[in-house]
Every structure is written in C-alpha cells, then in structure tokens.
Amino acid sequence: MISFEKLIGLQVITSAAEILGEVKGANIDTKDWQVTELLVKLSSMAAEELNMKKRLGSSVVTIPVSVVQAVSHVVSLSKSVKDLENSREIIEYKE
What we know:
This protein has helices spanning 4-7, 44-49, 81-87, and strands at residues 11-13, 19-29, 34-42, 60-64, 68-71, 75-77, 91-92. By secondary structure, the chain is of the alpha+beta class.
C-alpha cells in the first residue's frame, strides 16, 4: 500500500517505457473509498501523440486504475500511449 501523498508527483510510465506524465491527483469513489482514476498531467510528447496539446498550460487526463500495472518509485501502466489513444480509456480532465 502507498499513501496518497507519496502518489502525487510520481512519473507515469507506459508499457513501452514512454513518459506519459506526472500524477497530480486522483478521483475517489466515496461510496467505498476506492481510487477509481488517476489525474495525470501529460508530458509534451504524450499530449502531442494523444492530440491534447494546449497552447498555454498543459493537459490533465484521467486514467482508470485498471490500466495501472504497478506503483513503486513510478506508476507503471499496462498499455502504451498508442494503446491508450486507440482504446479511448483516458479522458481530458476538466474541473
């Protein structure tokens, strides 16, 4: 188990060893207190590949925890950027 504070700021790495971005937060289901999605600030490369590049600032997306393979000093995903783009599992986060 990892504390929420340690999760914030971790790099998110895809199955193809691409840097997707950095964890900025999480969505939590308050019914059962489970993390359902990670909020990830995309790297420039990932934002470009996913067609989410903004002129000012950076894109934040939600990634379902079902795609998370492991969490240690980084968050490892079970899919590549291309897989995520094709599956439409990530959604642009809007507050």
